[in-house]
Structure formats: structure tokens, C-alpha cells
Amino acid sequence: MKRISLMAAAAAVACGLGPTLAHAQSSSVTLYGDIDEYLNYMSSSSGKKLKTVSDGAVMRSRIGFKGAEAVSSDLTVKFNLEAGLSSDTGTTAEASQSTGRFFDRQAWVGLASPTAGELRLGRQNTAIFTRGGNVDFTGRTLGSIVNNFGVPARLDNDISWQSPVFNGLQAEFHYAPGESSTSGGSLAVYQYDIDYTVGPFKTNWAGLRAHPAANATTKKIVGYDNVNLVYDYGDGKLYGAFVRSNNITSGTNGNTAYNLLGGTGTLLSTTMSATDAARYYNIWQLSGDYRVTNQLRVGALWGKIIDTSHSGRNAKGGAIGAYYDWTKRTTFYALAETMSNDTNAGFRPFGSAAVSPNFTGSDVNGQKISGAQLGVVHKF
């Protein structure tokens, strides 16, 4: 059904091309980005401490180019190229991973029509990732328990279609074929999202299903579903979030510190653990914020990760924070957070970028981790 929906969307957008393609009306290219630097202090109940200057608590530092060309009165060609930066060291975000990427965050081209929606092709953010602002007062960044669980952020070779908004309702679908030489949907990742806004309420359900390789030892599909509800009460917002997923596995950094489906484009391993793939987690989180002045916003959250296999992999924690918009482009922020892992759990704090350096192994598993940060984001 998802393939049919995408094919229908492509046909609908293509129908708008007609003879007007040769008559471009206007075009623009925008250079944009941000720098996010913060002072970080964290401690583990193991006794270890971190005192660092880090990048990306609220927004991963980045530089990007985006453009649009109106080729008719109701059809626009768009593109986006975006590269992450580690502003504390001056390297590209992917440099330490030796992936060879430059535009690691986004690299896509698309067609947009107010009547047929928007079709995109290329490396794109997931529908789950782009709804981070609906999760909690942090925008699902540092301090968020949902973010500490992990979020599939973007995929390669992705085909997406986003519908127009109709009476407050909007849908989005993605299909990433996995670029496998075998058939039958091997390594394919399907995504979906439904958004609905009515008055001061906003809700959405975003999710994905990642299929194993044809020769994988474990045939389990990895899924992630996120349901959010936001109430705008005028002086701030109240948030409720629920996540259900089996997208967690263990490694040297911690018992629950890795994703089966990589967060930034790595597909399912042919040797993924059957035990991990069969273990589902439920994450509940409540959050709220309040705008003290036009420039100052404060917020708090509390959440819990529940291991439904009852194998001692639960975690819980909370955070408080304040954001001060000094100018239209510069924001100062202060955060404090804590998270307690059960005996076999090893979740770690995570921001818009990975906390680096971070705790590993025995300093994570079964430990309580607390921290405080002071930082600044400048957008350009």
C-alpha cells in the first residue's frame, strides 16, 4: 500500500509539469546554518565525571544550502544540501566515522505543489525526527528521555511524499529501498506520519518499519512508533509523548546504548541479535514549558523507559531548562538533567549531537547519570 501511495503521489505531482516547465518564474538559493557550543559537566554514580566543551546540545552545528525555483504558478523545484559540523573541533560531523560523507544531514531534490503535495528524492530526515518539536520542551534534544532512547534520524536513497494540509490533517510517507541486490523488500525501510491540528491542540503519529536483509540470521522487523500530543495554552505548551520500539541493542558503550537500525543511515545488520530484536520498550514522557517574558522560556520534563521483557533494562529521569533569546539569531540556554538505569540498562545522555566524550561501559550500565550545561546557539 505504501508503494502504491508513493507512485500515485509521483504521478499527481508529475501531472502538474505540463508545458510550463520551460518558463521559470523565480528562483532562490539560501545559505544557512548554526553554531551550538556548550560547557558540559556530567557525573556518573560510578564516580566518573566529564568536564568538556561540546557541540550540539540543542541544535547540531551545521551549514546548509537550500533553494527553490518556481517553474509554474503551482509547481516548485526544491533542493536541500546540509552538512553537520563539530564546532568544538572544526571537523565535519562524520569525520570520525570515516564514512566519506560531506552532506551527511540532508541531500535531496524535490517537486512541490500546493494541490498535489511534495515529492522528494535523496538523503532525508525521517518523519519521526522532523516532529521533535512535538515531543517536549527541549525539542527532543539534550535532557529528553525519549532522545536518550534513540531516534532514527535520516536515511539514504529515500523517496518521500507529503500531502497538502486539509482541514488540519496532513500525511507523510517514505520508502527507502535499501539498495539491496536481493528482492522481496530486503533492507527496505517504510515510514509514515499523520498530523492533525485543531485549535490549541496538535497531535501526530510517526513511525517506521525496517526490514532485515534476505540473508539475515534474524528475520525480525525493527519498528519505531511515536505518538505526541501538544496543548498550546497561550503562555506555553504541555506535551505528552509515547514511544514503542524494539530498536535497541548493546555494545561497548552500554547495554542499551546502540540502535539496531542506525540513527543516521546504517541499515539492519545481517547478524543482529534475535533476543534484542524481540525486546520491545515503551517510553512515556510528560513535559511543559512557560514563557516568562517574550525572551525567556523555562521548561521541565519527566519520563520512563519500560523494558516489556522484564529483563532489568528500565530507566527513568527528568530535566529542567531555560532558554533566553538574546537576539533573533542568538539564544543562551541552561540545562540540568538526571537519568537512572536499572541493573541491566545502559542508556546515556544524548543531545542533538552525541555527547562527546561520553560515559561508557561500567560507568553507564546500572548507573545514575546527572549533568548540567550552559550554552549558546547562533543561527545564520
Report on this model:
This protein has 380 residues and is mainly β. It is built from 4 helices and 20 strands. The chain has a 16-stranded antiparallel beta barrel. Strand 6 and strand 7 form a beta hairpin. The protein is globular. The protein starts with a helix and ends with a strand. The N terminus is likely disordered.
Radius of gyration: 21 Å
The dominant shape is globular
| Individual helix count | 4
Report the β-strand fraction as a percent range.
over 45%
* Arithmetic mean of pLDDT: 92
Features:
380 residues; 16-stranded antiparallel beta barrel; mainly beta; disordered N terminus; 50% strand
Topology:
Layout: H1 2-14, E1 26-44, E2 49-55, E3 62-72, E4 75-86, E5 91-92, E6 106-113, E7 117-125, H2 127-130, H3 145-149, E8 154-162, E9 169-176, E10 189-198, E11 201-210, E12 222-232, E13 237-245, E14 249-251, E15 254-258, H4 274-277, E16 281-291, E17 296-307, E18 315-325, E19 330-341, E20 368-379
Antiparallel strand pairs: 1-2, 1-3, 1-20, 3-4, 4-5, 4-6, 6-7, 7-8, 8-9, 9-10, 10-11, 11-12, 12-13, 13-16, 14-15, 16-17, 17-18, 18-19, 19-20
